[in-house]
Amino acid sequence: MKITQKTKVKDIFLIKFHYTRKLSNGETQHRRWLSYSMSQDKVYCFPCRLFSHLQTQIVKEGCCDWKDLSRILQRHEQSQGHMECMMKWTELFKGIKHGKAIDKDNERLIRESQKYWYNLFERLIDIINYLASQNLAFRAYRESFKLNKSKNSGNFLDLVKLLSKYDPTLRDHKQRINEKQLNQLYLSHDIQNELITLMSKLVINEIILRVKQAKYYAILLDCTRDVSRVEQMSILLRFCNLSTGAVEEHFIGFIDVAETTGECLTKSILQELERNDLDIQNCRGQGYDNGANMLGIRRGIRTRILNINPRSFFTPCGCHSWNLLL
User: Fold this and answer.
1) Which of the listed CATH numbers 3.40.50.880, 3.30.1780.10, 3.30.70.1660, 3.30.420.40 matches domain 214-325?
2) Tens of pLDDT along 11-60?
3) DSSP 25-46
4) Residue 309 main-chain phi, psi, to 5 deg
5) Sequence-separated (6 or more) residues with CB below 8 Å from residue 206
6) Where are the domains of the chain?
7) What are phi and psi of 183, to 5 degrees?
8) Residue-wise DSSP of 146-209
9) pLDDT for residue 9 is more than 50
10) Mean pLDDT, residues 271-276 taken together
């Protein structure tokens, strides 16, 4: 049960006292039938809510008489109607657990459907991981899952078609598509982008976890325009992996920046570090190109971050330095 500030004292009292009862022989029994609703701020009898037609307060409306709750619960659990509902609830629980309930066929179909979609998405994620690791395009100009409709449907769909010849899960999914048994194919570009986004979040979370374990890190960044003329800043983190002892360098994303001034770029960097729960005071290095907005003595990113953290030493980018020399 989640304890809020408003009901903290009362809920602790309920948990420690009303959710258990002491029998005449001195044993303590847990009232697993008692249920508390945080939205209604009332207690209910769960089995009686399922099987009983009684109009008592604890069954229909819920009980919030905290002063006399002990007496109400004791009287209710000793009633004949409550005992009958408890027996029905126990039988239902055993039937569901051992697969002998009246809706066992529906439960079996639900589990089979869950297993089918789990196996399918496991394969789709592997295909996405392969294409991303090989830096290959996912889609083509025209996409179709039917073999005779398009010869080149993009790498993603073509890999699904190829693997469906050997993999039973993908073959079954292809057959369902051809027989029009599915309303959603889960092969569209929207699904691909959503899976890519979810996978990227997991990768970034793993990188941030390693950075936090190492504690100290360095930031590397550069800005460039994409085809839509939007200025994008790429951010990389450099740190020492404590498990392997090797120095690692990982890209964590692009940030769209409205201006390329030192103030705007510094603000974007600090916001990105804060979003990833990284402390700027643990930064021990900076690496940029030789632009004025990066290395400016007064308004550059280097100076602004050094004013916040004097230990974040600056090292110029070697490639940009060689380019200037040439």
Assistant:
1) 3.30.420.40
2) 555 556 777 887 778 788 888 888 888 888 888 888 888 888 877 778 88
3) TS-EEE-TTEEEETTTTEEEEH
4) -135, 100
5) none
6) 8-97, 105-187, 214-325
7) -85, -35
8) STTT-S---HHHHHHHHHTTT-HHHHHHHHHHHTT--S--S-SHHHHHHHHHHHHHHHHHHHHH
9) no
10) 91
